[in-house]
Amino acid sequence: MSSPMLLLPLLLFTLNSYSYVASSPLYETFVQCLSKNTKNNQISNIVYSSQNPSFTPVLQDYIRNARFNTSTTRKPSLIVTPLNVSHIQATIICTKQFGLQLKIRSGGHDYEGISYVSEVPFIILDTFNFRSIDINIKDETAWVQAGATLGELYYKIWQTSKVHAYPAGVCPTIGVGGHISGGGYGNLLRKYGLTVDNVIDAQIIDAKGRLLDRKSMGEDLFWAIRGGGGASFGVVLAYKINLVRVPPIVTVFSIDRTLDQNATDLVYRWQFVADKVDENLFIRFLVVPATIQNRTTVKVTFNALFLGDSNTLLSVIKSQFPDLGLTKQDVKETSWIQSVLYWYTLPIGTPETVLLDRKYPGSFFKRKSDFIQTPIPKQGLEGLWKKVVLGEAGLAFNALGGKMSQIGETETPYPHRNGNIFKVQYFVNWKEEGIEAEKKYLKQTGSLYDYMTPFVSKNPREAFLNYRDLDIGTTDNGKNTYNEAKVYGLKYFKENFDRLVKVKTAVDPENFFRNEQSIPPLVY
Ligand SMILES: Cc1cc2nc3c(=O)[nH]c(=O)nc-3n(C[C@H](O)[C@H](O)[C@H](O)COP(=O)(O)OP(=O)(O)OC[C@H]3O[C@@H](n4cnc5c(N)ncnc54)[C@H](O)[C@@H]3O)c2cc1C
Ligand SMILES: *[C@@H]1O[C@H](CO)[C@@H](O)[C@H](O)[C@H]1NC(C)=O
Ligand SMILES: *[C@@H]1O[C@H](CO)[C@@H](O)[C@H](O)[C@H]1NC(C)=O
Ligand SMILES: *[C@@H]1O[C@H](CO)[C@@H](O)[C@H](O)[C@H]1NC(C)=O
Ligand SMILES: *[C@@H]1O[C@H](CO)[C@@H](O)[C@H](O)[C@H]1NC(C)=O
């Protein structure tokens, strides 16, 4: 596009259409291309250039990590907010024609912001207008579009039935498009597995602009978009999911234990039980630095969801994890939908409509992940506490096992199945702007991650795709070679990486759908 011969007609065009104040050469020609490919001249309403006053709000509406919300963050050349399938098809065709990169965004929760940031000139295709949810309670299934949030899905399920649910993430503002395609998990995973273990059909628009369903895309591509990430393969429009059954009454608790209250012994013992206990019970524990009576120490919080009543829960804990000292006063019986709010740290009794709120209180943050396959010795835990008290970063240990262990490693691209006790998340949030603050906090998660090396999975050191972490390897956005991709690919997918490459090679050999951690085609 940089040759003078090409620029001249573009400039003339802009001068001619002087009445469009909010226009740029790219905007004009892109809108023309879209109109031509959709036979629809209302198209200008769905394309935003940086001169449009709505550009910044539309961009920022689905930015969740303040690190990528700064004046120096690379901005898209255009944002397209399609209203129907033909708009998406035309956006793919035109973005390809213009030689730009396409970033697909649904809920914008990507930890590294790769759905709305790029190092090369790019366009954002934002699916937030695609948010319909159609529940068929007789079949116990639903079609849910990519731009719906988990909160909207949970709310709609609850409106339809008080004994159904869908096993997905904890944060209600997460988008379906990124979350399901990345193999999302939540507190129902020990009973029902991951999002992708409960997907039965999908609609995707491929690099040629074709709208495909499970039958027409074939089982290989359908396999790939259940955990391999959508963004390497096409624009996911919708998933058909199986709803799962939950009892009308569930039980939750959240209890803190400090080091003085034997937190070390508790964590140590829990490691031998977490993945083996009754699969109706899910417990996550968080390890954070805390100040108690002017002393810096470590606080461990056990958060639980039990698919059953409180008496049954108390007897399960009494026989499997008596050291926790759980009492009747610690636990609360409630409905599944209220347990969703409780896990989102809202008090039980909060109106369910808060699940429809798309606003998210953003902050600066960093996340990393690990998998634990053997219990950490007590000395190892004590060493970890010494690191935790030095900073603000913490760790979340999510129990696995149950259904997760009954599904084979190659059934979906998500490989971290039997033999894993915990998925670990390293987390740090901060409020201070600037590169110095960022350096300080990234060093904290980095130091915890380094410390954990001897205690976590090895060769490869496994990682969870939905906990996007660019530290574990990236590809040059333009080139995306197999050898670069293999570094992070084996961590996210183990032996499934090569099958993902095969699928990619078959469906997108020109590598149109690419990003910092995408799956490359073999011949490119
Ligand atoms: C506060 C918070 C809490 C979280 N909690 C959990 C949790 O409990 N469990 C869990 O598993 N994860 C959790 N995550 C991670 C989350 O699941 C992933 O970031 C997920 O990918 C987000 O999906 P999204 O659509 O919101 O994100 P986006 O940033 O829009 O997309 C993420 C990735 O998917 C691609 N993508 C998005 N939409 C489409 C589409 N329609 N077609 C093709 N590709 C697409 C994007 O290009 C990008 O690569 C959490 C994240 C945050 C910020
Ligand atoms: C991004 O910045 C705008 C102001 O420029 C602010 O309103 C918004 O809350 C910010 N979002 C995040 C996630 O930091
Ligand atoms: C797509 O959306 C546009 C704008 O709302 C509308 O004019 C057009 O009829 C729609 N096409 C289809 C196939 O729904
Ligand atoms: C901690 O453990 C010791 C020894 O096992 C026990 O005596 C003590 O009561 C425990 N304290 C708490 C608060 O559980
Ligand atoms: C904590 O420190 C403050 C100021 O140093 C002091 O006033 C307070 O009494 C201390 N509290 C405890 C519980 O030691």
Structure explained in plain terms:
This is FAD-binding PCMH-type domain-containing protein. Helix 1 crosses helix 2 (25-38) and helix 2 (25-38) crosses helix 4 (85-97). This protein is of the alpha+beta class and 524 residues long. It has 3 domains: 20-126, Uridine Diphospho-n-acetylenolpyruvylglucosamine Reductase, domain 2, CATH 3.30.43; 133-245, Uridine Diphospho-n-acetylenolpyruvylglucosamine Reductase, domain 3, CATH 3.30.465; 250-334 and 362-455, Vanillyl-alcohol Oxidase, Chain A, domain 3 (3-Layer(aba) Sandwich), CATH 3.40.462.20. The chain contains 16 helices and 18 strands. One 2-acetamido-2-deoxy-beta-D-glucopyranose is lined by residues 60, 63-64, 66, 69, 362.
Task: Give a nutshell description of this structure.
The chain contains 16 helices and 18 strands. The chain has 524 residues and is of the alpha+beta class. The protein has 3 domains: 20-126, Uridine Diphospho-n-acetylenolpyruvylglucosamine Reductase, domain 2, CATH 3.30.43; 133-245, Uridine Diphospho-n-acetylenolpyruvylglucosamine Reductase, domain 3; 250-334 and 362-455, 3-Layer(aba) Sandwich (Vanillyl-alcohol Oxidase, Chain A, domain 3).
